[in-house]
User: What shape does this take?
Amino acid sequence: MITRRDFIKVAAAGGALATLGDMPEAKAAVKTIVPDPAYCYESEKKIPVIAEVDLVVVGGSSAAVAAATAASKAGRKVFLFTPLSYLGDDICGSFQYHLKKDEKPVTALSQKIFVQKKEPTPLHVKQILENELIDNDVVFLYNCFLTNVLQDNNHAAAGVVFANRSGRQAVACKGVIDATLTAVAARMFGLQFSPFVTGKQRFEFTVVGNSIKKAPELLSAELLPYKMKAKGKEFPVVNYAFELELKSDTYASLMEVEQKIRDITWDADQGDSSDLLWYVPQQKIIGQQSYTNTFTSVRDIPLQAFTPQNKKNIWILGPSLDADRKIAEVLMRPVNALLLGDIMGELVAARLADTSMPSELHTVQSNAMASDYGLVGELLNPLRPSMRFGFAQSERGALPVLGTYDVVILGGGTVGAPAGIAASRQGAKTLVIEQLHGLGGMGTLGLIGRYWDGYRDGFSSEIDLGVKNMAPEDHPRQQKNWKNDYNSDWKQEWYRREIRRAGGEIWFGAIGCGAVIKNNVITGVVVATPWGRGVILCRTVIDSTGSADIAIAAGAPFEYTGKRSIAVQGAGLSHISPTDYYNNNDWAFIDDSDMLDVTRMFVQAKVKNEGAYDIVKLPQTRERRRVIGDHIVSVYDVLNHRRYPDTISYHKSSFDTHGMIVDPFFILSPPLARHTIYEADVPLRSLLPSGLDGILTTGLGASAHRDAMPVIRMQSCLQNQGYAVGYLAALAAKENKTVRKVDFKKVQRHLVGIGNLPQRVLTDKEFKGFSNKEMELAAQSIPEDFKGLEKLLTDHKRCIPLVNKQLSLCSDAEAKVKYASILCILGESSHVTLLEDKIKSYPQWDKGWHYTGMGQFGMSMSTLDALIIALGKAKQTSSLPVILEKARLLEPDDYFSHFRAIALATESIRSGEAVAVLAELLSKPGIRYHHIANLKDARNRVVPGSDDVSTRNRALKELHLARALYGCGDQDGMGEKILKKYAEGLQGHYARYANEILQDQT
Ligand SMILES: Cc1cc2nc3c(=O)[nH]c(=O)nc-3n(C[C@H](O)[C@H](O)[C@H](O)COP(=O)(O)OP(=O)(O)OC[C@H]3O[C@@H](n4cnc5c(N)ncnc54)[C@H](O)[C@@H]3O)c2cc1C
Assistant: This one.
């Protein structure tokens, strides 16, 4: 394994570029050089530059915020990013909410934090810091990990590159303040530090609610002189100090220390804990001046102690300065950090006043003799059309190999954590990498601690019993209905312990952001940690990100919102208090693969939940990116109870749609209201991204139609799916095969044995389609409420003549309309007049539908809406007058579904005749201007109440009409203008939709 020191050495080499890799001529030229297995070759790339600013602040500590705002107040344009989903990692991440007796907040910001509220809560601090940036026009992004630094032709610092779930982007700048704890940017520049020395060092960790523990590694356990207060309860806060060895200068070692500490400190009373270890970094930068005086005041330390030698335009803000470690520790106290940030921001702003923007940007790149493990796949995504400021050149280079495992699981959530347990129990060398600081994903940190339907046997029942047994029967937090409800903290800890007990390793606070692919087989993943980017080699990657992040980075096709549809299931971001386990909500749309949108939501959720203890750290999204696998589980597979010979997981739930549905079946025959439970099998082939081996994509990121996913997504079923993929991946390792080559019946027998799957899966046969007789009977039964439609729509070719035949045979007017609707929706225009007449028979609109938040089942449109959409699909201009007649009746407050029906139908017919009516609708009061342009806008537009849906319904009306207007030819560019606003806006799904429509037309 490569150490951090090696990585720094390589990064330091800069300029000189690798000559090895998959370039044939290069290989020939250096035949005698043996590639280093500790490095993975990466080809040349162009990284999109998304902003040009005066100053980039790396990291989200309180000092970082203070520096950013001070520089902004001095007139500099500032950009800040942090790997966390909040600001103030030094205060909130490691629980430094209390001031010591002699500490006085001197800056305005520290007074807001520590004086405004005497005993600050996490949300109070996070919101104050966030507002500070927003109010001072500092642009910032959450969940972004520094991966590279940029320099100009004179080797001066000139920008940064970061990774996030959208891919990688660069920001160009005149100067960088490195506000990370360990001066990560400075290390990436290869600047000189004092040497890393092994040996024991002090680490602190704070927990809320727990009782004091004893352990040999413990230096102290202090009950802090304040309590955390939430919902009328008080929770003790305990700070632990440990003496433990950081074995090597690697993130893996840091994670090992953290897991050990969590082993010791957890108990069943825990309601919250630090995300991050608190420690004083032992290495210091070699600065322009070493500060050797005794500490008197922050103001006395010269900027030169924070300024590295031999590199222009970078400053170290924090404890890695060139000073004694005791001074470093003093500077880590929040009041000092805030003051230091203030001072440095102002000084740096002044220095940058006369600095010019770099003209060329190069990543500081490794020149190690890297090995060829395959191509490094990743997304290079500029986020929005206007965020294109050229490219930063990333030459061929070498990524450090951070480890080699049998199984690497990205995302330790609902599926990923069980996968980690199964793989490690089977003896596979397993690593689970989770972006958050706990396991269990939506079910724990997402605060959905309650099952809703779902198949509960198999491995899931072991989890439930295990979680219950985390505390004695009479523990006050013991759930009465423990087979249904579970404590978030207990479940997180059960997962963690089981993985560790079985020998698995866990890294928190890191993301998977790429894949290494050789001959269509995944050979490793690219990860971004707070300490930099590297590769982890493995036999199987389990992509349990719930959004298919790794498969997509590897080039697999996927389904999501876009020009085809803006149907999104409702999402939320709820409040949280210690010991909360279930705060389900549905008041937003969030694209969690879009960092602009995620940042927007964290801002809005703070306003929505003002006064709460905290908000969750995981956007509660139901709609995710879904990989296209070898099979896409369809609505028809679910409705027809399709079986497969390779079933891997068994699911049970209803079509709990949480919003619009798009499949033609549901337009004609909406899903039944709650509680109609469907069973669904998911085959292995739906977890295999099309064209790739060595990877399994699970959970909400698996290959299924969005309308089918609600039946598949229940936690208990997905936990079993997690176990199954972990077991399969371990078997692949044992047998030295890729997952596609394993004898899957072996896996199924094991899964049947533990109750994950019903016995029948061992003999289930491939579905070959319905017989002609079955199709004919289905066609005959359509008059009974579209009975049989689920069979007919499995084969459009055979469906059309059968429906035509029945239509000609039947005399009942209603039945004829049903048959005509089927034909129209399949694009057949022979019987449009039947639908036109039916629509005409409605003197006014019937009761429509709009987003209502929680508890949306059944129809997402009215009968008249369905008829209009079906008619539109037949694409007949002659049908327009009937449709436009209904459009003219619409008023701004009418149901969203009516607007949607008109928009879908007119856009499908695409005739200039619709333009005037659509433009008139868009011009009605209240219809326009619902896009969110920036974070100030986002903050101002929050409507109170966790059930509010007005913002969604309004924006959707505007977007749908604009799309239709634009598609029909537009009026004075009105449609285009609206789409462009959304294309640039912060609402991720709307931006994707608008951008794809605009791109399609150009
Ligand atoms: C609001 C809401 C309410 C719900 N209500 C219920 C309910 O009542 N009952 C029920 O059974 N189901 C419910 N569901 C459904 C269920 O919770 C989800 O379907 C399920 O949890 C999804 O599991 P997953 O493993 O695919 O994703 P998740 O549980 O979200 O796990 C994904 C994990 O991957 C991590 N991650 C993501 N990207 C990366 C990356 N690149 N690198 C590293 N880590 C990454 C995330 O932090 C997360 O921990 C609800 C879902 C939502 C959103």
In short: Residues 165, 410-416, 433-436, 441-443, 448, 450-452, 454, 511-512, 544-547, 549, 572, 584, 618, 620-622, 699-700, 713-715, 718 surround flavin-adenine dinucleotide (CB under 6 Å). Confidence is low (pLDDT under 50) at residues 1-30.
